[in-house]
Structure formats: structure tokens, C-alpha cells
Write a structure and sequence with these properties.
This protein is an alpha/beta fold. The protein is built from 16 helices and 10 strands. The termini are far apart. It binds ligand F0G.
Length: 368
């Protein structure tokens, strides 16, 4: 078994050279799981796949972008990086910085990040600043700092982050041998929807694409055109600036990862939506929690609440899209692992029964 990270796997599509120091934790190559139980639950003939990004080394899709951002920071001689974060970017930046020997500072909204993410950033030795304010306030401050001081910004405004994250779309095409008809994805700061759309466009159109050359070999010429998916982005209804058409001052949602009122890649997300003829819409916290529990109980996949926004969106659009009637190929990105937010899980599920060492009582509790 030879392990490879996304730079080694897809370097020819990335802004790297043989001289780029590759800082990797072997991110990417995440499972694309067929969701037969959710297919049954929704009814119809479509194939539904889940891209489980929680299987990345720090438990979220951020690692794809971070291996690029940190490798390029080292190549460019940077000594320190900084980001604002709802938690996952912070955890990933801290881990890759530790590996690279870079100093890392993260500014997080105090009280609004999940426990697992906070523990990661702390353990990897980042300077963790809990800001009295929200994510948008934190990003503003980080941008001010990086304008004045020699710290490398590793938020998704750093273009290398988007470059790395686009590889998830490559993997989907490599696995399916085609792009899906629809791609459902949570939207927060809007970097990831931007990255997937860039990835789909580049890979489908690239003559270098392995899938394309294979298929072309099969049919013996170069005119094969793999279709592009419609990008279906979902914001939490209490923090949905793109859907509302204006920044949200006090974003609210229990999906803290996407509690963002003024996304950095707003325009690019709209571009992805419009070029792909997709949509960006809202899902309520109730719909997010329903999808969160469904994924865990029907498919054995434990995600954090924000990640379930994609599946919540699929459920919302199931009848509207005629998913029931047609045989479509659908991919939902699940952005982060459920262990990131144990508090929410414990609040959402049946509590354990505390029982004495009494066989009768134990058997009764098991239901025997
Ligand atoms: N899902 C999870 C689990 C996230 O952590 C994020 C973003 C998103 C979805 C949304 O992705 O911002 O590219 O639209 N988390 C960032 C962070 C903001 O700081 O960790 P996006």
C-alpha cells in the first residue's frame, strides 16, 4: 500500500513544482459511499453517493486545502500562519503547521465552536484566541493583521486552499467515471462550493484527466463530453446571507461550522450556482438535525451538524427535482466528522440508562 496525499496524487493539476516541499498527512482519497438506505427512504431510482470528508486526517475537508496552503507557505519562506475559523480550519491549520514547524494562530468566535475542534487546535500547539464576537468579526481582524504583518493567511481567501479543495471533485469523477447530475453541499464561507465547481470544470475539460482519456480510448476519439453537475448549496436558515441577498449581522444556527453572516467567497459561490444552473437555498436547524440523525441511524455515518446540510437539502428537493422519477446520479458532500461536536450528538440522541448490577433490570433495559 502506497499512501499519497492530494499533492502527490493530483500535482499535475495544482500550482506546485518538484521543488515544493510537500507537507501532508495523507489527506484526501476519502470514501464515496453509496447510500442505499437513504435511496430507499427517499424512494425512486436515483443513485445517491456520500463523499465522507470526515475521513480526512483532522476530520474535515479543510485538510485538502491546508496541505496546499501550508506547503506553499513553507515554499515561500513563511514562518507563521493565521486564520479566522468556526473550528475546522483552525484544527487543520494547527495540525499542518505543527508538521511543517510553522507558528500558527487561530481566532475563533468565543463560545461558538465545537469542543472537538477546539481540542485539536489546542493540542497541536496553535495560539488560540477566543474572540468576543462572531466569525465575521474574526475574519475582519485576521485580514487587518495579514495586511500589516508577515503572517500567511490560510483562510479560503488564500487561493491555494481552493486549489487543494478542488481535488474532491477529481476523486468523485475518478470513482464514478463521470460527474454527478447534482452535487449537494453545505455553504458557510463559500470556499468549498467554489472549489468543487472549479474542480469539476477543470477535470471534465482537461485532456489530462485520467477518466477522460480512458473513456476516450473506449470510444476511440476525443469528443466525449462529460456533463457538469448542478451545484446545490445549502445555508442554515438563520445564517443565509447569499439566499437573503444581504449580510446577516447576527447569524444563528446550531450548525456552528456554517454560522457565517458575510461569506468571503460570496460572489464565487453565486457564480458556481449560476454557471451550473444550480441553486443556493436554506435548510432549517430542524431539517439539519433530521438529516444528521438519519445519516447516523440509516447509513452508519456520523457527521457534524453542518455537514448534514447537504442531505437536508437533498430531502428538501427530493420531490422538486423529480429525483423520484428519474435515474439520476447524486453526490452529497459530508464535510466533517461527527466526533467534532460530541455535545450536539449527546443532546440529539437517547440518553444511556444508568442501571445497578442487576441482571433482571439489565435484560429488561436491553429489551430481552
Ligand atoms: N462544513 C463544515 C464542517 C465546515 O467546517 C465548513 C466551514 C463548511 C461546511 C462550509 O464550508 O466555508 O467552504 O462554505 N468551516 C470554516 C471553518 C468556515 O472555519 O472551519 P465553506
Amino acid at each position: 500500500m502506497i499512501y499519497k496525499g492530494i499533492i502527490e496524487r493530483y500535482g499535475k493539476y495544482l500550482p506546485v513544482t518538484g521543488k515544493t516541499p510537500v507537507i501532508t498527512l495523507y489527506e484526501g482519497n476519502t470514501p464515496l459511499l453509496r447510500a442505499k438506505n437513504i435511496e430507499k427512504f427517499l424512494g425512486g431510482n436515483s443513485e445517491i453517493y456520500l463523499k465522507f470528508e470526515g475521513a480526512n486526517p483532522t476530520g474535515s475537508f479543510k485538510d485538502r486545502g491546508m496541505t496546499m496552503a501550508i506547503s506553499k507557505a513553507v515554499e515561500d519562506g513563511s514562518k507563521a500562519v493565521i486564520c479566522a475559523s468556526t473550528g475546522n480550519t483552525a484544527a487543520s491549520a494547527a495540525a499542518y503547521s505543527a508538521r511543517a514547524g510553522l507558528k500558527c494562530s487561530v481566532i475563533i468566535p468565543d463560545g461558538s465552536i465545537a469542543l472537538g475542534k477546539l481540542s485539536q487546535a489546542m493540542m497541536h500547539g496553535a495560539k488560540v484566541i477566543a474572540l468576543r464576537g462572531n466569525f465575521d468579526d474574526a475574519l475582519k481582524i485576521v485580514l487587518e493583521i495579514t495586511e500589516k504583518y508577515p503572517l500567511t493567511l490560510v483562510n479560503s481567501l488564500n487561493p491555494y486552499r481552493i486549489e487543494g479543495q478542488k481535488t474532491a471533485a477529481f476523486e468523485i469523477i475518478d470513482f464514478l467515471g463521470r460527474a454527478p447530475d447534482y452535487h449537494f453541499i453545505p455553504v458557510g464561507n463559500a470556499g468549498n462550493i467554489t472549489a468543487y465547481w472549479k474542480g469539476y470544470k477543470e477535470y471534465v475539460r482537461s485532456p489530462k484527466s485520467e477518466v477522460r482519456s480512458q473513456k476516450n480510448k473506449d470510444i476511440g476519439h476525443w469528443t466525449l463530453d462529460i456533463g457538469l453537475p448542478k451545484m446545490m448549496g445549502f445555508q442554515a436558515s438563520g445564517s443565509a446571507p447569499i439566499v437573503r441577498g444581504k449580510p446577516v449581522k447576527n447569524p444563528k444556527t446550531l450548525a456552528t461550522a456554517i454560522k457565517i453572516g458575510n461569506p468571503a467567497s460570496w460572489k464565487k459561490a453565486e457564480q458556481a450556482r449560476d454557471e451550473s444552473k444550480g441553486i443556493i437555498d436554506t435548510v432549517t436547524d430542524g431539517e439539519i438535525i433530521k438529516a444528521y440523525k438519519l445519516l447516523a441511524s440509516l447509513e452508519g455515518i456520523f457527521v457534524e451538524p453542518a455537514s448534514a446540510a447537504s442531505v437536508a437539502g437533498l430531502i428538501k428537493y427530493n420531490s422538486k427535482l423529480k429525483i423520484k422519477n428519474e435515474k439520476l446520479v447524486i453526490v452529497c458532500t459530508l464535510t466533517g466528522h461527527g466526533l467534532k461536536d460530541p455535545d450536539r450528538a449527546i443532546k440529539s440522541a437517547t440518553q444511556p440508562k444508568v442501571i445497578d448490577q442487576n441482571m433482571k433490570k439489565i435484560l429488561k433495559a436491553i429489551g430481552l
